[in-house]
Design a protein that fits this description.
about 45% strand, elongated, 13 strands, alpha+beta, single chain, about 200 residues, four-stranded mixed beta sheet
Length: about 200
């Protein structure tokens, strides 16, 4: 997986008023949930801010990254846990990160790439991709940048489900019954089938 360098500054003041002031200054409030746990067994949260412009190449992309976050000189390895956008302007309002450890598995959504020309498409059908990412569990060093799925043998009216997929070193987290892609039967395919039957 690729890495992304990000610099942050610890937040001195918390609360909605402080967050609004930070956003006006072109900064984005962030929280990183760390490896360490508190007395209740919950991850310790570290509040910090980053420049909004520094996030552009991280969030407006289909790629996934391990984020090397330096907060006041201290380096942390993390992944994006959640992003909050403005409902109208689509600008980033808040980000949550999850600190990772090379010996502890993590769950992460990985982009899908479909390869090959499906048999059902050759017969006049239409390939439809139901999801763009699949969640997998693995050590972060074992998580690939994308999951490649060969659809060559996928016929008309057939589907590929999560349960049909296997990737070495990865545990699939999404339900086995979830549809990944399918070949829809189009009118052209129906007409072609009808002509073959008539002949």
């Amino acid at each position: 997986m690729k890495t992304f360098q990000l610099n942050g500054t610890a937040r001195q003041e918390l609360g909605k008023k402080s967050a609004r002031e930070l956003r006006k200054a072109n900064m984005v409030p962030c929280v990183m949930y760390g490896i360490q746990k508190d007395e209740n067994g919950m991850p310790v949260a570290q509040h910090f801010v980053v420049k909004k412009d520094d996030l552009r190449k991280l969030i407006y992309t289909p790629e996934i990254f391990v984020v090397d976050i330096t907060i006041d000189g201290q380096l942390h390895n993390a992944i994006i846990r959640e992003m909050q956008f403005h409902p109208v302007k689509d600008t980033i309002l808040h980000m949550d990160f999850l600190e990772i450890h090379e010996e502890k598995p993590i769950v992460m959504g990985v982009p899908i790439e479909l390869t090959g020309l499906a048999a059902g498409v050759k017969a006049g059908g239409k390939l439809q991709q139901a999801v763009r990412k699949l969640r997998v569990e693995a050590l972060y060093n074992d998580i690939p940048e994308k999951l490649t799925i060969d659809v060559t043998s996928l016929e008309l009216g057939k589907v590929i489900k999560v349960g049909d997929l296997k990737f070495e070193g990865l545990k699939m987290v999404d339900p086995a019954s979830a549809v990944v892609c399918s070949v829809l039967v189009t009118r052209a395919a129906k007409d072609a089938a009808a002509e073959e039957t008539a002949e």
